[in-house]
Specification:
The complex is a heterodimer of chains A (about 350) and B (about 475). With about 350 residues, chain A is mainly α. Chain A has 14 helices and two strands, in the order H-H-H-H-H-H-H-H-H-H-H-H-E-E-H-H. Chain B has about 475 residues and is mainly alpha-helical. In chain B, about 65% of the residues lie in helices and about 5% in strands. Chain B is built from 13 helices and six strands. The chains are: A mainly alpha (about 350), B mainly alpha (about 475). At the A-B interface, helix 2, helix 3, helix 4, helix 5 and helix 8 of A face helix 2, helix 3, strand 2 and helix 13 of B. Bound molecules: CIS-heme D hydroxychlorin gamma-spirolactone and protoporphyrin IX containing FE (2 copies).
C-alpha cells in the first residue's frame, strides 16, 4: 500500500514514529506539570495550601499518565525489537520510575482516605514518588541522548539531565499553579517558578550543547550549512520564550483571566521546542545510532490496523480530554465526591 | 542462585496477581455504582445515595491501585519478556494498542468527572461519566482477555521465520476460548464485588450500624451473588469442556488424572506425585470425570501420561499447583453458592411485621460468615488464574512459543533485586489498602443517615482532617 508514492514500509514507520513522538510530548508536558506540582508539595506554606495543590491536579493526573502507557504501547507494537532493547538496557531506571509512579499514584488516594495521623506519611511518599519518577525519566533521557552507553561520563551527564528535567517539571508545575490558584498559593507559585526556570534553562542548555558532541552525525546535523539556518528558529524562539517568561514572572501575574495562563503556555512552548530539537537529532533512529525506525518496525499489516483505529480514536480522546479540562476549568476548588 | 528465567516468572506472576486484584473489583464495582445511582434516581431513596457515596471511595482507591500496577505490567513485557513481543508482537501489539486507545483513556478521563464532578456537571453528564468508566473497565477486560485467550488457543496467524503474522483478525479476536474466558472473568468480577459489598455491610451491621443503607447493601450483595453464582458454575463447566478440546493436558492436570481411559473417576482429594506419577490418599467418585467431561460413564478422558515424550521429557504442566488451585476455586464457588442461597432462604421467611427480607432474620453464624467471604472473590479469582496460566506451561503461547524462549537476558541478580523491591512494595500496599478499606467501613458506622441530598459527606480532599471538624476546608487567605 503506497501513500504519496512512498511504500508502506516507509510511510507507516514514519507515521508511527510521529504518533509515538506526539504522545511522548503530550506525556512530558501533561504529566510534567502534575509531577512538578508533586515535587513542589513540600514547599507548601500550609496543609490547606498543599491540599489545594493536589486538588489542582486531582482530576487530571490519571489521563496524563495514560499518554505514557500509549507511548510505551506504541513503542512496543510499532518497534518491538527497539522496545525490548531500550527497556532491558534501562532496566534499573525503569524500575525506579515505576516505583515512583506507584507510590505517587496511590498517595493521591491514601493521603485523604487513611487515618489523619498517616496523612504526613502519604504526603511524603507523594513527594518522594514524584521525585523518583522525574529523576529517573531525566536520567533515562540523558542516557538515551548519549546512545544508551554506560560509561562514567555518560552517567554523569545522565545525572545532570535528571536534575535538569526535575527542575523543568517543577517549573512547569509552578506555572500550572499560577494559572490554577489564587491568593497566597499563587504568590508562592510565582516565586517557585522564578527559581526553577533557571534549572530548566540550564538543563535544556546542557543537552543542546552536548548533543552535537555525541557523534559526528549529530554534529553535522546541527552545525553544517544550510541546516543550521533552518534550525535557527529553534534556539531563537526558545530564548525569546525564556525572556518573556523571566520578565512576565517579575511582574507577578495575578488573579483570574488569561494573564495567569501566560507562563504556563510559554512553558509548554519551551518544552515543545526543546522536544522538537531532540526529535530532529534522533530521526530516523529509534535506538540511537543502532536501529532506525524502518529497521525496527513491525509488519505493515499490524501497523495499518492500529493506525486505522488511531485515526478515529486519538481525536476522540483529545475531544473528551478537552471536555474534562472544561469541566474543571477556572481556579481550583476543593475536590468533593458529592 | 536461581536463574533469570525463574526469577522473571516469579516477578511477572507477582505483578499480575497483584494487578488483577484491583481490576477484579473495579470492573464490576463501576456497574454497581451505576446501579446505586440509578436506583436513587428512580426511587428517590437516599439510602442508595449513601451506598453510592461509600462505594465510590472504595472504587477510587481500587482504581488507583489498578492503574499503578497496570502501568508496571505494560513495562514488564519490554523489561523481562522481549522475546514475547519479538515473536508474537504483530498480534499482541494491536490488541494491547486497542486496549489503551479504546479503554484506558475512556476510564482515565471520565473518572475525574465521575469522582469529582457530582456537583459541577449536570446530572445526566455525571451519570454518563459513571457509565463510561464502567464501560471502559469492561472494554479493558475484553481486549486483555482476547490477548490472553489467544495465547491459550492461538489461531488466525502464520509463522514466518519464528515471527507470527496475522492472517485473520476476526479469528484472532474470536479465538475458541475467548467467549468462555471473558464471560467467566466478568462473572468472577461480579461475584467478587457482590460478596465484598455484602461482607463489608455485614461487618458494619455487626458493629451496630443498623442504617437502612447497610441492610440494603447486604440484600443487594446477597441477591446479586445468588444470581451470578449458578451462572458462573455453568460457565465454568463450559469453559472446562472448551479447555478439554484445546488444551487436554491442562484438564488432565486439573483432574489429577494420569491414565487415558473410560470410566475415569472424579478425584475430590488426593496428593498428586509427579515422580511416582500417581495420586496418594485419593478420594474419588467413580466415573465422575467421565460423566462431567464426556457426559457418559464410559467416556474416554485424556490422562497426563499421554503427554510425556519418548525420551521422558514432560510436556504437560506441573500437576500439583494446577490440581490444587482448581480445587480452591471450585471449593470457593460452592461456598458462595451455599452461603448466598442459604442466607436468602432464611431472609425469605416473613419477619414479625409480615415483611420479607428483614436482615434481622439472618442467623448470626451466616451474618458472621459473610465477613470473611468478602475476600472470597479474590481467592477464587487468583486460584482460577493460577489454574489457567500454570496449566498452559511449558508454553507461553500454546504450540508457538515456549516460556524460556521469551525471557530477557537481564542478569539474574538484577532481576532478583527488582523482584524483592516489587514484593516489598506490593506487600506494604496491600496492607495499606486493606487497612484503609476496613477503616472507611468502620468510620462509615458513625455517619448519620443522609436526610437530604446536599454535599457534606464526600470531601475527597482533607477527608480525614477538615471534615471531621464539620467545616469545609478554609479558603486560602488572600494577600
Ligand atoms: C469468583 C471467581 C470464580 C469462581 C467462583 C469460579 N471461577 Fe473458574 N475461574 C475464575 C474465577 C472463578 C477466573 C479467575 O476468572 C478464571 C481464570 C481465567 C478465566 O477465564 O477465569 C477461572 C478459570 C477456570 C477454568 C480454567 C479454564 C482454562 O483456563 O482453560 C475452569 C475449568 C473453571 N474456571 C471452572 C470453574 C468451575 C467448574 C467453577 C465452579 C464452581 C468455577 N470455575 C468457579
Ligand atoms: C490477561 C492477561 C495475561 C497475560 C497477557 C498473561 C501473560 C503471561 C505471561 C507472559 C506469562 C509468562 C511468564 C511465565 O510463564 O511464567 C504468564 C505466566 C503466569 N501468569 Fe499470566 N497473563 C495474564 C493474566 C494472568 C492473571 C490475571 C494471573 C493471576 C492472577 C496470571 C498468573 C500467572 C502465573 C501464576 C504465571 C506463572 C506460571 C508459571 O510460571 O508456571 N496471569 N502469564
Ligand atoms: C499482562 C497483562 C496486563 C497489562 C499489561 C495491563 C495493563 C494495565 C494498565 C497499564 C492499566 C492502567 C490503565 C490506566 O492508566 O487507566 C490497567 C488497568 C486495568 N486493567 Fe490491566 N493489565 C493486564 C492484565 C489485566 C487483566 C488480566 C485484567 C482483567 C481481566 C485487566 C483489567 C484491567 C482493568 C479493568 C483496568 C482498569 C481499571 C483499574 O485500573 O482498576 N488487566 N491494566
Amino acid at each position: 500500500m503506497e501513500l504519496l508514492g512512498f511504500p508502506a514500509t516507509q510511510w507507516l514507520p514514519f507515521a508511527f514514529a510521529s504518533l509515538m513522538g506526539f504522545s511522548i510530548l503530550l506525556y512530558v508536558i501533561l504529566d510534567g506539570y502534575d509531577l512538578g506540582v508533586g515535587i513542589l508539595t513540600p514547599l507548601a506554606g500550609s496543609e490547606e495550601e498543599r491540599d489545594m495543590m493536589v486538588a489542582s491536579i486531582g482530576p487530571f493526573w490519571d489521563a496524563n499518565e495514560t499518554w505514557l502507557v500509549l507511548a510505551v504501547g506504541l513503542l512496543l507494537v510499532a518497534f518491538p525489537s527497539a522496545h525490548g532493547l531500550i527497556l532491558s538496557t534501562l532496566y534499573l531506571p525503569v524500575f525506579v520510575m515505576l516505583v515512583g509512579l506507584i507510590l505517587r499514584g496511590v498517595s493521591f488516594e491514601f493521603r485523604v482516605k487513611a487515618r489523619a495521623k498517616y496523612k504526613a506519611l502519604w504526603n511524603n511518599l507523594f513527594f518522594i514518588g514524584s521525585l523518583m519518577t522525574s529523576l529517573s525519566q531525566g536520567f533515562m533521557l540523558g542516557l538515551y541522548v548519549m546512545g544508551l552507553q554506560f560509561t562514567p561520563l555518560t552517567i554523569l551527564f545522565a545525572t545532570l539531565c535528571a536534575l535538569g528535567l526535575t527542575m523543568g517539571y517543577a517549573f512547569i508545575g509552578a506555572t500550572w499553579l499560577i494559572a490554577k490558584s489564587e491568593g497566597a498559593l499563587q504568590v508562592d507559585a510565582v516565586a517557585w517558578a522564578r527559581k526553577s526556570i533557571l534549572g530548566a534553562a540550564a538543563g535544556i542548555g546542557a543537552i543542546s550543547v552536548a548533543t552535537p558532541l555525541v557523534s559526528e552525525r549529530l554534529w553535522n546535523k546541527w552545525l553544517s550549512f544550510p541546516e543550521a539556518l533552518y534550525l535557527a528558529p529553534l534556539p531563537i524562539l526558545s530564548l525569546m520564550l525564556l525572556s518573556i517568561l523571566w520578565r512576565g514572572l517579575e511582574t507577578h501575574p495575578r488573579g483570574e483571566g488569561v494573564r495567569a495562563w501566560i507562563p504556563f503556555i510559554s512553558a509548554l512552548g519551551l518544552f515543545t521546542l526543546a522536544y522538537i530539537g531532540l526529535a530532529y537529532s534522533f530521526y530516523p533512529y529509534v535506538v540511537p545510532e543502532k536501529l532506525t525506525i524502518f529497521e525496527a518496525a513491525s509488519a505493515p499489516e499490524s501497523l495499518l490496523i492500529i493506525l486505522v483505529g488511531a485515526m478515529v480514536v486519538v481525536p476522540t480522546i483529545l475531544a473528551y480530554t478537552i471536555l474534562a479540562y472544561w469541566v474543571f476549568r477556572g481556579k481550583t476548588r476543593e475536590l468533593r465526591y458529592d | 542462585m536461581m536463574d533469570a528465567l525463574i526469577l522473571s516468572r516469579i516477578q511477572f506472576a507477582a505483578n499480575i496477581s497483584f494487578h488483577i486484584l484491583f481490576p477484579t473489583i473495579t470492573i464490576a464495582l463501576g456497574w454497581f455504582l451505576l446501579f446505586f445511582k440509578l436506583r436513587f434516581q428512580w426511587t428517590g431513596d437516599l439510602k442508595w445515595m449513601e451506598a453510592y457515596r461509600f462505594w465510590v471511595k472504595i472504587f477510587a482507591l481500587s482504581f488507583a491501585m489498578g492503574v499503578v500496577s497496570g502501568i508496571t505490567m505494560s513495562f514488564q513485557f519490554g523489561t523481562n519478556w522481549p522475546g514475547f513481543m519479538e515473536s508474537v508482537g504483530n498480534i499482541a501489539g494491536p490488541l494491547l494498542a486497542y486496549e489503551v486507545m479504546t479503554a484506558f483513556f475512556l476510564e482515565a478521563v471520565f473518572i475525574g468527572i465521575m469522582l469529582f464532578g457530582f456537583s459541577r456537571v449536570p446530572n445526566w453528564l455525571h451519570t454518563t461519566a459513571t457509565f463510561l468508566v464502567a464501560f471502559g473497565t469492561t472494554m479493558s477486560t475484553f481486549w486483555i482477555i482476547v490477548l490472553n485467550s489467544w495465547m491459550h488457543t492461538p489461531q488466525g496467524f502464520e509463522m514466518v521465520d519464528g515471527v507470527a503474522f496475522a492472517t485473520n483478525w476476526w479469528e484472532i479476536i474470536f479465538n475458541p476460548s475467548m467467549p468462555y474466558r471473558l464471560a467467566h472473568m466478568l462473572l468472577a468480577s461480579g461475584l467478587t464485588v457482590s460478596f465484598l459489598i455484602a461482607g463489608l455491610a455485614a461487618l458494619r451491621y455487626i458493629l451496630g450500624d443498623r442504617k437502612e443503607t447497610v441492610r440494603s447493601q447486604i440484600r443487594a450483595g446477597l441477591t446479586f451473588g445468588a444470581l451470578l453464582i449458578p451462572i458462573q458454575i455453568f460457565a465454568g463447566d463450559l469453559h472446562g469442556l472448551n479447555t478439554l478440546e484445546h488444551q487436554p493436558a491442562k484438564v488432565a492436570a486439573m483432574e489429577g488424572n494420569w491414565e487415558t481411559g473410560p470410566n475415569t473417576p472424579l478425584v475430590l482429594f488426593g496428593i498428586p506425585d509427579e515422580e511416582a506419577r500417581t495420586n496418594h490418599f485419593e478420594v474419588a467418585i467413580p466415573n465422575g470425570a467421565s460423566i462431567i467431561l464426556k457426559h457418559s460413564p464410559d467416556g474416554v478422558v485424556p490422562g497426563l501420561n499421554d503427554f510425556v515424550a519418548e525420551d521422558g521429557t514432560v510436556l504437560h504442566p506441573p500437576v500439583a499447583p494446577v490440581f490444587w488451585s482448581f480445587r480452591v476455586m471450585v471449593g470457593t464457588g460452592f461456598a458462595m453458592l451455599l452461603l448466598s442461597w442459604g442466607s436468602l432462604a432464611f431472609l425469605w421467611r416473613r419477619a414479625d411485621d409480615g415483611r420479607r427480607f428483614a436482615i434481622r432474620r439472618l442467623p448470626k453464624p451466616l451474618l458472621w460468615a459473610l465477613v470473611p467471604m468478602a475476600l472470597s472473590g479474590w481467592l477464587a479469582t487468583l486460584a482460577g488464574w493460577y489454574t489457567t496460566e500454570i496449566g498452559r506451561q511449558p508454553w507461553l503461547v500454546t504450540g508457538v512459543l515456549d516460556t524460556s524462549a521469551a525471557v530477557a537476558d537481564v542478569p539474574a541478580p538484577m532481576v532478583l533485586s527488582t523482584l524483592i523491591g516489587y514484593l516489598a512494595i506490593y506487600a506494604a500496599l496491600l496492607f495499606a489498602y486493606l487497612s484503609v478499606v476496613v477503616y472507611l467501613t468502620i468510620k462509615a458506622r458513625h455517619g448519620e443517615p443522609l436526610t437530604e441530598l446536599t454535599p457534606g459527606s464526600g470531601a475527597a480532599v482533607v477527608d480525614a482532617i477538615t471534615r471531621d471538624g464539620g467545616a469545609g476546608p478554609r479558603a486560602i487567605p488572600a494577600e
